[in-house]
């Protein structure tokens, strides 16, 4: 599967724009074995698991879930000290096509916990939240 995805990215001229991310960290190993320069980022529900994958894979970034972000000052300081992209996903959001009710959230608060970027299924919910408090 990894080879097919990477072939499609290459065929469409998108390889340099892709960050390969997966809950299956073995899949990221396969990506790196195919293309050593491919950007990879382990995806996990908590930042500890992401960091484990980051170090094992020599990854470029981490993709933790919002409910697994650090909350104590020491962990936040350590995470921010790594100076790596921390692209958080909001695990409480509905998947595409679902009509799940989403609680009101201010995602800017996660910047204080070390998040550098956020990826979302519902960007329209957050368009007004563009600057830090």
Fold and architecture overview:
By secondary structure, the chain is α/β, with parallel strands linked by helices. The chain has a single domain, classed as Phosphatidylinositol (PI) phosphodiesterase (TIM Barrel, Alpha-Beta Barrel), CATH 3.20.20. Helices cover 30% and strands 14% of the residues. The protein has a 3-stranded parallel sheet. It has a two-stranded parallel ribbon with strand order 4-5. The chain is globular, with a radius of gyration of 16 Å.
Q: Shape from CA axes?
A: globular
How many strands, which pairing sense, and closed or not: the largest β-sheet?
3 strands, parallel
Remind me, CATH topology? TIM Barrel
> In the residues, how many domains can be counted?
1
CATH architectural group = Alpha-Beta Barrel
Number of strands: 5
Decide which structural class fits the backbone: alpha/beta
Number of helices: 4
How far the N terminus sits from the C terminus, by CA atoms, comes to: 42 Å
Mean pLDDT: 89
Order of helices and strands: HEHEHEHEE
Strand line-up across the major sheet? 1-2-3
CATH class: Alpha Beta
Report the portion of residues in β strands. 5-15%
Please compute the radius of gyration using only Cα atoms: 16 Å
Extract low-pLDDT stretches.
none
CATH superfamily: Phosphatidylinositol (PI) phosphodiesterase
- Helical fraction equals 25-40%
